[in-house]
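FAQ: What does the model actually see?

It sees only this:
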Amino acid sequence: MLWIWIGFVLLVLAFLAIDLGVFHRKAHVVTMKEALGWTAVWFTLGMSFAVFVYFGYENHWMGLGQSTDLMAVSTANPEGHLDGAAAVVKYITGYIVEKSLSVDNIFVIAMLFGFFAVPSIYQHRVLFWGILGALVMRGVMILLGAALIARFSWVMYVFAAFLLLTAIKMLLIKENKAPGDNIIVRAAGKIWPITKNFHGEHFFVRAGSDAAHKAATPGGAIERDEAVDTLEKTGSGALMITPLFLALISVEFTDLIFAVDSIPAIFGITTDPFLVFTSNVFAILGLRSLYFALAGLMAKFRYLKVSLAIVLMVVALKMFFHSALKELLGPFAFNFYVLGLILLVLAVGVMASLLKGDAKNSASVPAHG
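And it is asked to produce this:
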């Protein structure tokens, strides 16, 4: 199975290399049309991977599907093995859950970009490296979580309780707060001197260098006052961090926080490490384009957060009562119903948001005649 993992990681790295090295080699403002196009591309790739999942688990390539999935254990399947159909349903369910939960992450990323005043032209670069770091962090968390669950099955109930608390918190807290802004800025400032201005695409610049004299304004304005001030404090050649790097580590920090919620959610669907990791990866890969597609529409989806909280509750209850529900409905039907319920909850949230927005817009139009 090790070669399956290595092959998938190399595939993801190839996707990222093509993305940054070919299609986004030059910094530019991502338009709505481009964002929607890339969102469709990443969604298609994620769904296409389900074909590999089906044949891989159906034929047990390199041992796929032969490890114990606690969410698949039943009287008819005491070993918890997965065939192609069961694996595909779990993969798609996990992908949809992770993709929907990433929408809440987008709200916070938008706040962070506003907080650091990141120019639109450089936001894609921050998201690219932020998502690369997120993939590494989530990979480590998934492997640790899978090891814990394999050794201590009761951890599943701890995850379920945590998801319920998270769902309740999402319902009670009215506004998203960007976590760790001030902490990150203060901590970074104690380690490195921080520049006041953006310096192109640079995360770091050296005092006295040409790059340190150029700000990231469209006209490339010269910031001599900052350069002189920095030289007096740090000396020529000192390494400085830019606000773009502060935005990057803030995005990484927030993804770590959101991963604490989303990783237990995916384990509520399947404990198969490969399905958990691949569904997470494809959901995250499309996060950048989804951000640019939805960033300007955030205010319209006012009920989406309620839907996400309900999704977490559904997954938590699934974790608590999965044994009894599988015996009642059958393993495949049970997973299929969970997938349908999650899609229904998300659709209702989106439709309610759009209808509420239309009603509000209609009410604001003055009557004539």
